[in-house]
Amino acid sequence: MTGLSTHVLDAVSGAPAVGVEVSLQDASGTQLAAGTTDSDGRITQVNPKTLVPGIYHLVFDTGNWFADNDIKGFYPEIDICFEIDDPARHHHVPILLSPFAYSTYRGS
């Protein structure tokens, strides 16, 4: 399986973060794709096209998600910059989210 997926988990409740808007941008800031996390906090295929090697950004609209869930948060947006080096490989970029912290890693 190739492509790009993401998952957002609300680390405070241990539940999926449903309804987080996410955009995929290239290094110049041009939006390539966008989506919203589903009932499991996932977007299984962020981009409809194969990504060529290069620098990309996944931008998570956490400010609106916090507001919609009546949470006072510190990060209105999370911009994860990463590099695709092998377009034949699947890339997964998950976020563990809380109001005053977040973490990410290269998933599988």
UniProtKB/TrEMBL annotation:
<dbReference type="Pfam" id="PF00576">
    <property type="entry name" value="Transthyretin"/>
</dbReference>
<dbReference type="GO" id="GO:0033971">
    <property type="term" value="F:hydroxyisourate hydrolase activity"/>
</dbReference>
<dbReference type="InterPro" id="IPR036817">
    <property type="entry name" value="Transthyretin/HIU_hydrolase_sf"/>
</dbReference>
<comment type="function">
    <text>Catalyzes the hydrolysis of 5-hydroxyisourate (HIU) to 2-oxo-4-hydroxy-4-carboxy-5-ureidoimidazoline (OHCU).</text>
</comment>
<dbReference type="InterPro" id="IPR000895">
    <property type="entry name" value="Transthyretin/HIU_hydrolase"/>
</dbReference>
<dbReference type="InterPro" id="IPR023416">
    <property type="entry name" value="Transthyretin/HIU_hydrolase_d"/>
</dbReference>
<feature type="binding site">
    <location>
        <position position="7"/>
    </location>
    <ligand>
        <name>substrate</name>
    </ligand>
</feature>
<dbReference type="InterPro" id="IPR014306">
    <property type="entry name" value="Hydroxyisourate_hydrolase"/>
</dbReference>
<dbReference type="GO" id="GO:0006144">
    <property type="term" value="P:purine nucleobase metabolic process"/>
</dbReference>
<protein>
    <recommendedName>
        <fullName>5-hydroxyisourate hydrolase</fullName>
        <ecNumber>3.5.2.17</ecNumber>
    </recommendedName>
</protein>
<feature type="binding site">
    <location>
        <position position="42"/>
    </location>
    <ligand>
        <name>substrate</name>
    </ligand>
</feature>
<feature type="domain" description="Transthyretin/hydroxyisourate hydrolase">
    <location>
        <begin position="1"/>
        <end position="107"/>
    </location>
</feature>
<keyword id="KW-0659">Purine metabolism</keyword>
<feature type="binding site">
    <location>
        <position position="105"/>
    </location>
    <ligand>
        <name>substrate</name>
    </ligand>
</feature>
<comment type="subunit">
    <text>Homotetramer.</text>
</comment>
<dbReference type="InterPro" id="IPR023418">
    <property type="entry name" value="Thyroxine_BS"/>
</dbReference>
<comment type="similarity">
    <text>Belongs to the transthyretin family. 5-hydroxyisourate hydrolase subfamily.</text>
</comment>
<keyword id="KW-0378">Hydrolase</keyword>
